[in-house]
Amino acid sequence: MSLTVDNLRVYYRTLRGDVRALDGVTFRVEDGEIMGIAGESGCGKTTLGKSLIRLDGRMRYIEGKVQIDGVDLPIADTGAMDAFRYRSVSIIPQQAMSALNPIRKIGRMIEELLDSRGVSYDETKPELSRRLRLVGLDDGVLDRFPIELSGGMKQRVVLVLSTLLDPSLLIADELTSALDVSTQKAVAEMLVEFRDRSFVKSTLVITHDLSILYQIADTILVMYAGKLVEKGPSSELTAEPRHPYTQLLLGSLPEVGVRFNERRLTGIAGRPPSLLDPPTGCRFRDRCPLAFAKCSEEPPFVEVEPGRFAACWKASD
Amino acid sequence: MLRVKDVSKVYKTGMFGGSEFTAVSGVSFDVEPGEVVSLIGESGSGKTTVGKMILRLTGVTSGSITFGGVEVSALRKSQLRGYYAQVQGVFQDPFSSYNPVFKADRVFELIRGNYLRGMSRSEWNGKVRRSLEDVGLEPADVLGKYPHQLSGGQLQRLLIARALLLDIQFLVADEIISMLDASTRIDVLNLLGDLKARGLGILFVTHDLSLGNYISDKTIILRRGRIVEMGATEKVFGDPRHAYTRMLLSSVPQFGHKWEKLEDLDLSESDAASADMRPGVLDEGAAGDLLEVDRDHFVATG
């Protein structure tokens, strides 16, 4: 077992009170698994990713337990977490390509990064070159500044450098979102390649784009308003979603072949609830066409059939 | 209605404008009333520049853009106002299109001040209400609110409603739903479909092939400033002839059929494309003339 998350709650402090961005999530990721975390903006997917590596100043740990390879991850203690960062948990944050230091050459920057972990750059260099070649780059990039690289090249550099110490868990947050379709495909497939070559044990791919997850993830976890909504093997979940939210979300995605004149898709009316003071019961209830009286009680996130989990009173029907 | 003919745009770059960068090269197409035309391209393809030239936010280097037979670049100040009463644009980021200090509906008042000064208050209010209804907004939900109180979808609809106040005939919609959430973006896209039924011509600029396929009658695939393929949407998507179009289509992630695995991770092709986008490295003659391969289906030679 690579990662287990048990009833994790992380809130954001604001002047108007706590925003319950991540409100009790429980799941596990197996060794070698690529799990996609999908949802719309504000669903808590990025908060989940960040919680597993570093809580920023506004984030407040409330409760919950996280284990990586059977060891407790001290996520509330930013000092103690440092021993795990990069070595066992590594993150590619949103807009990672603009996170590269613009006044350092790529090689120098990697050297500094390894230095900070007490790892020798010279000893790592052969492996670094090998991995750069694997993603279609040569050693030349090490002597270049970030501005000299295209978006896709930068994303590949970031992917290589964040996995250089073979972390147990890689968190990739919207890694492919800013890329053109052709580059997006290449970078997404590299995530699979890195897993296949055991550069990382397991990967969390955070994205709003379910169709990318269908391509590369083994399982998909769908979030809504700080809670888990549904989880299952990616091909099953996208083919036969069990939760009404997932069903409506998938139904609103235009695919090549679907035309407005022939089949009009519809979105989901309304908007997600405010997480400052979220409603009790199912948080999707106000927008849900199937909502009934029982939805004022919170539905548990349970296994509705082997391998398929959903938090909906009607999901097991 | 709108005719773009052999339009090019060359930017001067470098210190003292010493080098040149061709952003758009020899692009021609027409948009008729009630037609949605998708302009699809990757970053650096020049798709936004084409929209900007139509809106006269930037000039053309050569070629002509005519609207209703009138040359757009020749319009003088007073005529330009008349042009903007018929042609408007909506852009990608609804959050930065508004001044956060003012209420969001101020964009309507600006229209009134600029174009419809003579209109009575009650007539104006009725017009605002109607155009809000046209874009599926409840006036009470949005009027008198600040931008931060509204969702991206609401803000984007307000901008479309603003354009509709002018009884426009042509809309440049540049990546208007890219920043919206999946569950609300399709409704904004459907709105464009409904406007088209009322005779509005729309240029839908996007990088997203599935969105272009969904909404448009005609599709133009742009690469490095040139048209590589153009025609009826069902032909371009159903029977893509250009290698580049095929490559794009095969890269789109789709449900129910997995990507073909890359043989090796050689990305020299896509790297070359991005390297070539740097100023001054545009290769001339990368795409040749357009050849009509089928009725209403054109493909670049070479």
Explain this structure.
The complex is a heterodimer of chains A (about 325) and B (about 300). Chain A has about 325 residues and is of the alpha/beta class. Chain A has a single domain, classed as 3-Layer(aba) Sandwich (Rossmann fold), CATH 3.40.50. Chain A is built from nine helices and twelve strands. In chain A, the strands form two sheets. Chain A has an eight-stranded mixed β-sheet, sandwiched between helices. Chain A has a four-stranded antiparallel β-sheet with strand order 2-1-4-5, covered by helices on one side. In chain A, strand 9 and strand 10 form a beta hairpin. In chain A, helix 5 packs parallel to helix 6. The model of chain A has no long low-confidence stretch (mean pLDDT about 95). Chain B is of the alpha/beta class and about 300 residues long. Chain B has two domains: about 210 residues, Rossmann fold, CATH 3.40.50; about 70 residues, no CATH class. Chain B is built from eleven helices and twelve strands. In chain B, strands 6-7-8-3-9-10-12-11 form an eight-stranded mixed β-sheet, with helices on both faces. In chain B, a hairpin with a 2-residue loop joins strand 9 and strand 10. Chains A and B meet through helix 5, helix 6, helix 7 and helix 9 of A and helix 7, helix 8, helix 9, helix 10 and helix 11 of B.
